[in-house]
Fold this sequence. Notes:
Elements: H1 10-21, E1 25-29, H2 38-41, H3 44-59, E2 65-68, H4 70-74, H5 78-94, E3 97-104, H6 108-121, E4 126-129, H7 135-138, E5 148-154, H8 161-164, E6 167-168, E7 171-172, H9 173-185, E8 191-196, H10 201-210, E9 216-218, H11 228-235, E10 240-244, H12 246-249, H13 257-282
Parallel strand pairs: 1-2, 1-10, 2-3, 3-4, 4-5, 5-8, 8-9, 9-10
Antiparallel strand pairs: 6-7
Helix pairs in contact: 3-5, 3-13, 10-11, 11-13
Amino acid sequence: xxxxxxxxxFSVRLRDAVAEAGAPLCVGLDPDPDRxxxxxxxxxxxxxxxxxxxxxxxxxxxxxxxxPNLAFFEAYGPDGWDALATVCDAVRRSGRLLVLDxxxxxxxxxxxxxxxxxxxxxxxxxxxxxxxxxxxSVAPFLEHARRxxxxxxxxxxxxxxxxxxxxxxGMPLYRHAARLAADAARDLPGEAGFVVGATRPQLxxxxxxxxPEVPFLVPGVGAQGGSVNDTLRANAGGPILVNSSRGILYAxxxxxxxxxxxxxxxxxASSLADSAIRSAGSI
Length: 283
């Protein structure tokens, strides 16, 4: 008998979260002590928590998901794990999706422990996963129903081409990675998604054509040079979250940082919504 209280599949919750927010905006939570306003930077892990909670409070009206980057919390040591758990609790209470960005990728019991930490202990709806070790490094993150493993396929950093664009059997490696993830998900209860950078929209379009229903997590808009219009045109109406971190978190370094973050999030959300309408009209 089905559990009527169980959460819906990730793709359904993604669709609903985007509809509620009005745009597919994901805000990255990267509390860099070198960029935090001074009163938070001096507070260590507790300061990082206070900063992130102020950001989530000020931006959640237009945000579909939040993406804490685990490195910025782990760097605080033991206090950082408690800080991360507090931020994750706040995101879950907000009703927004929680994407945990740790880029994990290991095999066997190690991979399963990584997945348990992110999904069961921290309550993530999704996690970023590195596929370099092959199918058995992705599978542990697909063994959890109603969760999504966003597999690194075509990333936004300049060095992505070093490996991801290599020709392997007449096909670029990023397409092999995408097929590996999609194939692995067919026989497992979780969903596979792709991390696809906004800085190479032609590759995003290529992947969307082959995988029309797969959720994309797209970094690289704004500070890294990616274009909202190019991204959503290439996406062709598929399920998507467009991430922004620095452009929202550090819109101001003064006491008005939360208001500046809200204004930046609202501008980006409006741009995403407008571009989505234009892209839908051109399909």
